[in-house]
Amino acid sequence: MKPMRTRRFLALALLTTLGGLALITAVTAVAAAAQPLADALRAQLRIEERLLERARDQYREASSLEREVLRDLRELSIGQDALLDRVLREALAGGRPAISEEGPQESQRPAEPFLLLRLRSAERELAGTRETAFALARESADRRRDLLARAARIGELRLEIAKHARLDLVDKTGLDGLWQIELAGAGITGVIDFNSEGTLVTGVYRLSDGSQGSLRGTLANNRLALERIDWAAGFDATLRGKLDAVAGVIEGTWTAVDVSGGAPTSGSWTGRRISRGGTSGPE
């Protein structure tokens, strides 16, 4: 292989080593920073994107060098076949190949034919170039695998960032989690497990009178609008309230749908946060 290409090959290997050291340094710096998880993930994504760009450039360099060496290998192989053909033609013709292109010298002992010497030299060059081509092929394959792994890693990071962005949006509402509630006028207490995504709210509840079911509704501008669906009676009440996420308090009113049973049909209700999201629902 040509000396310039040998230097390029060695430089490429050095860049690989330096790139690995840079990755270790960058990841260590990210881990050392006391950032929220989502911020740390975004910082890591930026690092991975820069490393992917550098890995892509290094792969292109390795692939280009591999193609050049393969062209050299093809040219050497063709040249060697041409030399071999000349040697075989002379051997089959019964003549002795010349000692040199100028002919033998009078004082010179018979030596190995010049064509055979050239053929052996070409074989050594071909073998060395073939080994280099194999090494570059392995290098290119390793870099392709590295590119695919980095691209997959970036995809995973983006999914993780999107997931945390959704969680951040939910957490900003201050609603998710367990709440202790009291329905004034009805003398009923209970527990609600709220879950929100954007402005949409769902939940499950259990009350002190034994009833239980689910809730659905919206939260906008800290104002709750809910429908209560009892597991036995179905849709049986609406609830409205004002959320104070900082204090962990909800205050509002409730209204029964069925007003024929003689029980209280409306009243106020309050809620106080017991714990934030991640609970398994009211016991």
Radius of gyration: 39 Å
Strand content: 25-35%
Shape: rod-shaped
Number of domains: 2
- Unreliably modeled segments: 20-35, 104-111
Report mean pLDDT, rounded to a whole number: 77
Structural class call reads alpha+beta
Strand arrangement across the biggest beta sheet: 1-2-3-4-5-6-7-8
User: What is the distance, rounded to the nearest whole angstrom, between the alpha carbons of the first and last residues?
Assistant: 75 Å
- The number of helical segments is 3
Please summarize the sheet with the most strands: 8 strands, antiparallel, barrel
Helix content: 40-55%
Strand count: 8
Sequence of secondary-structure elements: HHHEEEEEEEE
Q: What is the structure about, briefly put?
A:
Helix content is 52%, strand content 25%.
What does this protein look like?
With 283 residues, the protein is of the alpha+beta class. The protein has 2 domains: 3-172, no CATH class; 177-276, Lipocalin. Helix content is 52%, strand content 25%. The chain has 3 helices and 8 strands. Strands 1-2-3-4-5-6-7-8 form an 8-stranded antiparallel beta barrel. Helix 1 (3-32) packs antiparallel against helix 2 (37-93) and helix 2 runs antiparallel to helix 3. The longest helix is centred in the middle third of the chain and has 60 residues, at 114-173. It is rod-shaped and about 125 Å long.
